[in-house]
Amino acid sequence: MINIWRLTKIQLLSSFGLNKALHTRDVKERRKFLLLSSGILIGVVMIAVFSFGYSFMMAQAFEQIGRMDLLLAIMMAVTSIIGFFTTIYKASGVLFGFKDYDLVMSLPIPTSHVVASRVLQLYVLNLFFTVMVMLPAGVVYALKVNPQALYYLFFLIALMFIPLLPIIAATIIGALISWISSRFKASRMISLILTIVVIVGVMIGSSRINGNEQVLVDMSAQLAGMIYKLYPLAAMYVDAVCSYRMVPLLLFIAISVLAFILFSTILGTRYKAIHTGLSTSHASRKYIMKPLKTSSPFRALYKKELRRYISSPLYVLNTGIGMIILLVTSIALLFISTEKLGQLIEIPQLSDYLSKMAPLVVSLFVILSCTASSAISLEGNNLWILKSSPVSKKAILLSKVAVNLTVTIPVSMISCVMLMISLRTGWIESLLLLVIPLIYACYSALMGVIVNLKLPNLEWTSEVTVIKQSASVLVSMFTGFISIVVPCVVLFLLSHVNGNLILLGIGVLMLAVCSVMYRYIQTKGEKLFQSL
Q1: What global pTM score does this model have?
Q2: Fewest CB within a 10 Å sphere: which of 15, 323, 386, 419?
């Protein structure tokens, strides 16, 4: 057990750069750590406030029908689904995609302990999110019900085990996807396709479940039965926490812990084989000599960046999930009218809101799909190759911008065309719907490169550290989110003003910001890149 704890501790310290931040004397490194901590703190506060407000609104409805237990049941199920959803596509990167594999596996530690430490790392990261969501919900429940003292004890104990089983289930699916894909020549592409299929399937299934919840909103018994049927552990959790029963609590803990031990042991027996399959390259039996082709330095750099992007399923999924959701939603709106959707979610003016806010809604998905914010950090210890290459550093940086635009622009344009059809927008609204996301795509890509130049992370052992947990990704995402929230607030506050004029002004302003950032990359980008 001590080996598992030590490995997990080292991995967590390495993931967030805590070890370097705590022991370095470099002022810049401490400043980066302070910036990262501030960003995480702001994110935690925002999620906690949203969870509290959402829980409070649901509690008012459940209080009227005398089923306050449904509050904890729903929030627990939602937390588990989100943990399951996000772990599917990052499990492979944490379990198999780490650079110090040879070093770790050469240690006198059983393979099952290595696997357990990796799964435990996923658990700790998801537990952080679980606490942010469930703790405000627990506070709302306590304010409404005024429970006994045992409630607080049982709530805190059960909280520690909520994310364990969903993570294990998602990790099993992620491991199976990795193992199946390793049997084929294009293993990474197969893994990417399988993972996308699973995620889209979960999205479609979740949308159907949400529709059923709306139908059963006033039927508490059926709603509870549906939740408990979909996720039986929710019944044990509610029975233990709300009714202060020890047996369901012990059963809930036992199932979670035993599943963790069993999974680590079984996966440990196939761990080396799966890793070998994933790291093995396949060559075609037939090789045909063809004439060599030359291309411009920028085109060669662009192809290199695009191959690097496609070669990492974790990179593609983490930065492309926003585009996937946007595309699926746009297709769904072709078959579900906005009026009917507004009735289902009880927003009668949804069609008007979507018509006015559609450019910013699409732009939000574009902001969430920024590849450039981690593109420089992913070079890692190979960055010296680019720095010493006889090409302009401007071309290197713009090639990373070009890959970002390749990911966001085609999907957003296709989605915008479908939204024009479903929302029946006029020609001015249609033009804004096409142009505004295009401007935000340029803004997101340029901002991502600049932030990554300022906050690089070149000393990583797992791609997850750079793609999901680095300071540059968090700062870039937060900055992009603010750039969307502020225009939305302006649109609401100036509702009496023509919305098209406001969107036009926002587009002109963002275009000016993009030109300033492009000029900054031209003038300061080379110096910043050389200093890395």
Answers
A1: 0.68
A2: 386
